[in-house]
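re: ur msg from earlier - yeah i can do the fe (ii) ion complex, just paste it... oh wait u already did. ok heres what im feeding in:
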Amino acid sequence: MLKKNIEDICNRQVEREGYSSNLYIAMASWAETNGYSGVASWLYSQSDEERIHMLKFIKYINERGGTAVMPALKKPAGEFKSVEDVFKEVLKHEEFVTASINEIVSLTLDEKDFNTHNFLQWFVMEQVEEEASVRIVLDKVRLVGKNNMYEFDRDILSLRRPAANASTAP
Ligand SMILES: [Fe+2]
Ligand SMILES: [Fe+2]
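and the outut:
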């Protein structure tokens, strides 16, 4: 049975993963309507992964005798200055999520909840890979500069790492 404080912080993460999914859809939609179909595909796929992260937490909470709570999600921004601006925001958001996961890990150690600690290890690794993959995209955006966005948009999907969730879907 999950302790209440662990259940609550896992539910907070349900909200954060759900918000991530919505945020990336908002960014994808902006990219789609501004001529960046490759960037839009990258972001739509990213959004799908975040939804799977949310489901992993929901299922884990319920499996351990807790109750997953469906959150109200705040409205993400719908306007962005540039593709570089979008990916800067993605990186900032992923760093926020990493800190959030680490906070849960820390609480599981305080509470000696080794099951939840073990469950979180997948997310710890996932965040390392997510941040690295977004940094690669950001480096490329900066390299190509504003004049070569056509090539960048065409090639961005080749920068996508293989779906990390394929074998670990909930
Ligand atoms: Fe996530
Ligand atoms: Fe993420």
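cool cool. Residues 20, 50, 94, 97, 130 surround fe (ii) ion (ligand 2) (CB under 6 Å). ping me if u need the other ligands too
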